[in-house]
Structure formats: structure tokens, C-alpha cells
Amino acid sequence: MSAAFDPADGPAANPVDERLVPLLRRRCRRLEQRVRNSRRTGWDINLVAQLREELGPLARGLHALGEEAAVGTVLQLADTLARPLETQTLPDPVLGARLSALIEALSEQLPAPTGAEATRQWTLLPQPPRGEALPIGFWRRWVADAAPPLRIPLPSRLPVPAGSTLGIPEADKGLPTMTAPLRLYLLTDDGPDASALATTLRSRGFEVDVLQLIDELVELSGALPADVVLIDRMHAPAIELIGEAMKPVRARANQPLRMVLISETDDVMARLSARRAGVDAVLVRPHGPNDVADRLHDLFSSADPSYRVLIVEDDRAQALFAEGVLRNAGMQTRIVLDALDVLEALDAFQPDLILMDVHMPMASGIELTALIRERERFLHTPIVFLTGEQDQDVRFVALDAGGDDFLSKPIRPKHLIASVQGRIRRHRDTLQSREAEPAAGLDSGIVERGRMLARIDQLITAGSPRGGIVFLEMETIAALRERLGLSQFEKLHVEALALLEPLVGERLLCRFADGGFLVLDASFEPDDLLMFAVQLREALSGHRFVFGERVLSTPAVVGAAPFAPELTDAGALLNAVEKIAHRARQRPDRAELYRPLAAEEAARQAALLEDMRQAMLQGRLSLLYQPIVAVAGGEDSRYQTLLRLDTSSGARLTASEVVPAAERSGFIVEIDRWVMREAIARVADTRRKGNGGTVLFVTQSPYTLAHGGQVEWLRSELRAMEVPGSALVIELRLVDGFVHTGTLREFCSAMVTDGVQFCLSQFEPGAEVDSLLEQLPLSMVKLAATYSTGALSTAVRDELKVLIDRAHRRSLLVIGHGVEDPQAAATLWMSGVDFVQGNLVQRANDTLDFDFHQAIL
């Protein structure tokens, strides 16, 4: 191996150049790779927008290095990518070839590798092919670590080249944006959800760089510090590793570098891991990209005013020492040497904290504290005694007079700073929470989903005699999303909220999932609530949304649900109104009202609910199992679990009678968890007996899957019983899929990585079926019962074959359900189903002893 090149032999390198050049070269290689992949596998309009946005940091970095020719090429790339965005068309092969040519020209215009980077490429390995980046830190296996990087001041922002069209997208109207753009590094994957999140954050005023590797985040943060590092949920398991790697970077940075974690769990261990990693905020299960942007905006949109500390100390040297320490930490201070001047200084300075000496002439610190606490404005202002007093009785008297803490002299500067900052931070948080409390009772304006649900629960608990909720939903929402792209799809929601806000008047309004809006009323009678809902639907359906040269209208459906005794919480009320809105699709006026149960029926439902609770305690719930047989035979034993409830009167109820009542009452989570726990225990028992191929199909309500912590609960149950996720197939009803697509997609995406499979039941043709199949990670579908009757018309048989063929093209297995006679089985077999289930095979019972080896149809 040749001797390593000594940088001292050549001209001195600019440390900024040494950091920027390799980062810019790596970014160019990644850009080339993504364009090449898109030309090979197909383009996505959101990816085009993301690529154009990511050219901004590249142009600013090249401009900082004085590479104006390369900046010009980047601007040509931006103009080329702007064409398909303006026309909302995907790049054609000609445009793709031009992009590749421009990127190749840009690669040649980039500065040559500098310093140690050039040495590594020359002496260790041949230059890699264009577009293939070597692993970060690959050279560590051959050479020792480099010297620590020089600490140099870097500009917080690189200037944008004159005339550049790259920048922050126009902010969405009606949504808060950053007054001064914050640079944000998003550590995520390369999926569509990441692209949607990045697009939304840019539209809300953040400068976003998308990163996929932890090493890349560390290197980029060291060279170009960001304001915020946002760590997506898939990197949450490695948060402590990320925090450890970022610790020296944050220590060297000449500006605050804050870390935010998106997490699916909110247990103690997850919080501890985030705290150990130095995370500043945890966003638990946010409701989509806009929710993330809102919460980041709340966290970082406006900096808190600097902390104000009043130092009451008669010893000038001690006072100046404390003032110097606190001022160097960025706090405002004022010294009071004369104890009698304290009250006047309080009114003038309005401190966040008072640092008080105990022993002073004219008046002691204890006496001053008692006087300060008599003034209502400073009743809760922290007072910390900084003194050498060791007498415990004196300390007790000081605390009894209203002091909050003692700090002993002498004190180390960092201990003084930490104590003062911690006290002030908690004091300000307390004040903010108190100021926010009155707002919780307001009943008007656009609010977030959590606030809406909390207010609904308040009204239900108070027994509001009038009012209810209205659920307004755009039809064909999946088609709108595909047609508009994510950025304009979000703008559609913003404009819809702006349209609805003046119409709802003094009521709460919130966005509720994609295409859905929720309005809370506390005054209308049921029929008036329906009339109000119809007016909102007509306004939304009649509005024309303008996107450039395109004008769109959005047909909508609406459901209204008044408060009712049987709807005991927000979840039950939402369940009712969403089902009513879905039923409204079958009505010509596209509107429907939930009718509260009659007194007799309400009493029956209440009695049934109480019977359910007692049945769970007394062991009167049970599961039956019905085999699901492969048409061509197979090794695995598949069974459908069927819930049964034995009532106190001796009757046996099926799941179709129990589940609707449990969903209305909010008891469905307990029921579903009992069923799931029993199913997992039964699988564990069969595995201990040597049958490792048993798979159980378990139906679950969408309200259970949306329950907080359900993913972690299911994972913990599987781990506790040592059952793999592949032993479960969670069955989802088609109608629930239409109503709760977002909730189901989130849960399924989380659990599919654990091997859990998903089956969509009641499967039949429909306008939105294809969109639902694209959004959910399904393995199987179960046909609707109408296809399992004995005699089918020719048209229905043809429809059945087309339906099964469409499912097979999506790699979905098809189950014929409710098969009672041989003719139905023969029809299904000839149509191409993969499995058959029904009484023809075997009636449901409480055993798992069916002989699947002999069951070949």
C-alpha cells in the first residue's frame, strides 16, 4: 500500500470545505440512485416533489463553496422537476433521461474529494461506480480514527443563491407555520408515509432533509447543525444508541439542537429510553403528518423569553458571582443589595425566580419571603435560599415561611444553573397549564381531535339533555388522494375547514381522519341536529375547490348522532355516528340520523351489558372453533374462533348479538381482549402438545384496534405465551374497513412485522374495494355469504369468478364462508377459492381435533 497523503504537503484546506464536500457528493449520489430507481420501477408524483425540495440544501451548500457552475446545474434540475409538478403528470422517459444527464453533469462539476477523503479513495479502494455510496465509516477497519474535528463557528443558515427558485413551499392557509424557518433533519425510511410527512413539514415552513441512516444523521449534524432532529417511529428501538451518538455533536454545536421522537408506545420503559437519549419531546401516536407539524409548531414556533432571576444578597461579591454565572447561562438578572428595596424590585422586574440570602441587615430573607407570599401575584414564584446556614431549625422556619428550596454555599456554577433552570421551567409549565384550563371549556372554533373527544366525554358525563355530533365525510376520498397528491390533498382539507368554520358558528369543529370532519353541538334537538347536518353537507358538496387550472367538487355524506343513554362515552358515540354516515351512502339525500333506543330497548341493552360483565367474571363466555379447510389440502390447521355468551337466563348468544351491544356501550375492548387472550392460550396449548401448525382466525372490532396501547398489549400477550404472530389471523369486516381505514391501516402496519396476518371478511364488489385492498396489508379475503348459497345465477357466478381472480392477482387467498351444501361447495371450488368454511365441513365445537389431512375437496 502506498504511503498516505499528508495534507501538509498541499495547500491548507478550509475545515468547512472538508465537511461539506463529502456530504454534497454523497447527496448527489443518492439523488442519482433514486432517479435511476424511479426510471426503472416507475415514478411517483410525491417523490418528484420531494426530490425538488431536496435540491435546496444542495444548492445552498454549493453556493457556500463558490461552485456557481454546479449551482446552475442544480437550478436546471429544479426547473426540469417543476414541469411534471405544474402539470400533475409523471415524468416520461425523455424527461427521465434529461434528469439523469443533468445529475451526471452535476457529479462532474462537484468539488474533488478533499483531505482525508481523497486519500481514502486513492489508497484503499478503487473509485466506486457512480450512484453507489460506500458505507459510512468503511475506512475504520484499516486506519485509526482521525483527530477530533476543529470547533469552528458555522453559519446557522447558508445563503440561497441569487435568483434561485428553491425555497420553502407556500404555507397552507389556516394552519400555523414557522415565522422563522427551522432546519429539520427527519430520520425515517424511504416509504410513502415518510414522503408525506416531509411534504407536510415543508408546507408548514420547516426546512427538511430526509435521512435514513444514523451515521449519516451524525455526520450531517456535525457539519451543518439543524434546529430539530425528528426521529420517526421505526428508529424508536435504537433511540438510546442515537442519543449516545448525537451527544458529542450536541455538545459541540453553537446553537441548541433539539431532538423529538415519534413513538407508538407510551409506557415507562419507552419514556425512560427517550430521556436517557436526551430527547426533548416525545410525540405519542400522532394522527398523521399535520398532527406532527402542529405539535412541532407548538414546541418550537416561539422561543420562551429568557429566564429572569432576582438576586437578593447583601454581600456584593456573592451577588456578583451568582449574577455572572446566571448571565453566562443566558438569563436576565437583577441584584438587590438592600433588603428594603425587594418589593419595589419585584414589581419592576417580574422575576421567574428569587434567589434569596437568609441573613441580611434590616430584614432577614425569611421575613422577606413571608412578605412576598402575602402578595397574590407572587404567591407561586419560586424562592430559593442560597446560604451557608446549616441549622436545620432555621431551614425549617424558612421553608415554613414560603421558601421552596435551599442551596448551600459554596456551590458549583453548573449546579446553580441546573437548579435555577429546573425550578423556572417547572414554574412556567405550571402557569401555562393553568392558563390553558379555561380554554378546555370553550365550545367553539377549530380544535384538535384529542380536545374534541375530551369535550364530548365531558358533555356525556354531565348528562347533556340536548345536542350531539355531526360526522361529515367526503365520498371517493381515495380517488381524490391519488388524483391530487399529498400536498394538494392536505390543502383540500385546510380549505374545507375554512369553509365549515363560519357555518358551525359557536361549536367545536375538527378534522377527523382523511376526508372526515366532526362537529360538536350542545343545543339542538335530534331533528334540528339532522337539519344542521344536511346544511353542512350541502355547503361542502356545492363548494368548488380550485387547484391551478383544475376545479373539483367533493360529494359528501353526513351522519348525526344525538346524545343518548346507551352511548356512554365518546368512543360509543363516534361508533354510532360513523356507522350512520356509512348507512347514509344508501340514501338519496346522503344524510342519516341515529335514533336513540326506545326506553324498553335501552333497558334491554343495559341488562345485556351488565350480563356481559358478569359473564366475564363468572366464566360464562366461551369460544367455539370451526375448521377452515384448504381445497387442495395442507399441513396447517386453521380454525375460526366464534364467541358465545351464556346469559343468566340460560340462553346462548352469538357474537352477532353480543358485539353490537358491546360496541355501543364501549365494552368491546374488554370483550375482544378476552377473546384474543383465550385464542392465544389455546394456540400455546396446542404447540406444547406438538402441533405447531395451528392458526386461529380471530375477529376484532376497529374500536379495539384503535384503543391506546393495543399494539403493545398484543405483542406482550404473544411474548408471554411464547406464541409467534404467524399463528394469528385477525379478521376485519369490510364495512369496518370502509369506515375506519386509517385506524386499521395503522394497526395492521404495526403488527404485520410481527408475522400477524389479516383477513377481510364479507368481501364483495364495490366502488371503494380496490382502494381498501391497496391500503391494508391483507393476506386473505373471506367471501360474503351471498356467494355460498346453493343456486347462483349465471351473472352471479361470473361475478364470483371475476372477484376471486382480482383477489388472486393481488396475491390474496380466498375463503368461501358459510358453506352448507355440496352444490355451494362445488360452485366455489370451480370458481377458484383456496379454502372452504362452513357446516358442510364441520359444525363449530369446542375442540381442535379436525383431521385436516383427510379433508381434501
State the secondary-structure class. alpha/beta
Segments where pLDDT lies below 50 for 5+ residues?
Answer: 1-13, 116-147, 149-175, 437-441
What order do the strands of the largest sheet run in, or round the barrel if closed?
Answer: 19-20-22-23-24-25-26-27
Distance between the termini: 70 Å
The value of Rg in angstroms is 33 Å
CATH level-1 class of the largest domain: Alpha Beta
Q: How many DSSP helices? A: 30
Give helix % range. Answer: 40-55%
CATH architecture of the largest domain: Alpha-Beta Barrel
Number of strand segments: 27
Largest sheet: 8 strands, mixed, barrel
What does this structure look like?
By secondary structure, the protein is α/β, with parallel strands linked by helices. It folds into 5 domains: 1-134 and 157-167, no CATH class; 168-303, Rossmann fold (3-Layer(aba) Sandwich), CATH 3.40.50.2300; 308-436, Rossmann fold (3-Layer(aba) Sandwich); 444-596, Reverse transcriptase/Diguanylate cyclase domain (Alpha-Beta Plaits, 2-Layer Sandwich); 620-837, EAL domain (TIM Barrel, Alpha-Beta Barrel), CATH 3.20.20. Helices cover 47% and strands 16% of the residues. The strands form 5 sheets. An 8-stranded mixed beta barrel has the order 19-20-22-23-24-25-26-27. The chain has a 6-stranded mixed sheet with strand order 11-13-14-12-17-18, sandwiched between helices. Strands 2-1-3-4-5 form a 5-stranded parallel sheet, with helices on both faces. The N and C termini lie far apart (70 Å). Residues 1-13, 116-147, 149-175 and 437-441 have low confidence and may be disordered.
